[in-house]
Amino acid sequence: MQTIESYTHTHIMHFQAHTFSCSSHLTKCHLNNAAPFKTLASAKKPLYGTGVIFRQTGSRRFPSVLKQMNHRGAINSSLEGQNPSTSAETMRNVVEHICLLKAKVDLSDENEKDMLDFLYTCQYQMRGILAISLGHVSDQNLEGYTHAVFMRFQKKEDLSKFYKNPFYLGVLKDHVTPYCHEFTYFDYESEVEDDILPIFRKGEEFNFGVEYILLIAFKESSLGEVADDALTSFAKFLMEFPSLIVQATNGSNFNPGSKDYTHAVVIRFRSSDAFDIFMGSSEYKDIWRSKFHPIIEKKLSISFSVDPVGNELM
Q1: Structural domain spans, the chain
Q2: Among 67, 79, 149, 210, which is least packed, fewest CB within 10 Å?
Q3: Tens digits of per-residue pLDDT, 229-256?
Q4: CATH architecture of 4-14+38-46+53-68+92-313
Q5: CA dist 220 to 249, 257, 259, Å?
Q6: In the chain, what is the straight-line distance between the N-terminal and C-terminal CA atoms, in Å?
Q7: At 118, phi and psi to the nearest 5?
């Protein structure tokens, strides 16, 4: 199995300079001029040649459209016809990090851009950050969070170093704390497909879309087998819609400083249309009502638009 570090030597990546422009509305994006999906049922059809991840095997390329689920509930792409018994060998452990911010009411557009730009730049100033997305929360939530940051790390040790990194601490002191009166962290372990694009969340599929963060507080009596069953059922359900969803992970929150929620789910939707179709569907509402509503104390859902950052795989 390749290490994360070896990917950067065997696959040379060129990333264009990033200029973040914050927007409070969701960006609409159709996939390579494909017709937009009208219902959740029509979105169950897999995408062939429409923004899907391609894996290279020898001189041929195969569309990765078959979705399989691992025991931690991650949605991942795999080669069509792959033996399910060997799918676990293609998975890689990752650590997901969520930071939610409450900005001051008088935050200006200029200061907001400054804050988000410096947070985004963290990935270029320190080792260990595999992927990052961030933005202005698109809809109001009961707890008043205004901005969200998602980061991916290779392992817990990298996350621990991140929290103590002088550059990051300087960003918080000079470019976040002056503009926000509160921020909260959540961390969990999950798995993704062991391939460069899904690990680093790079390529055409990740250039646009909507990041959806769902925090769940399960009842204490439901923690363990009951909660795991609900999350497993949800992961299986998400697998049915590769035309709407690029990637999803979930796991148990291990951050000792945030006890309000026990589990987190992060889903990258292909577009604002895909997000609206999924969230408004009766199928999604049914699985939430039957699997989650009886066993949770509360939930927090947050979404933000993902702007293109410009990247290529050379």
Answers
A1: 4-14+38-46+53-68+92-313
A2: 79
A3: 999 999 999 999 999 999 999 999 999 9
A4: 2-Layer Sandwich (3.30)
A5: 22, 18, 12
A6: 21
A7: -70, -35
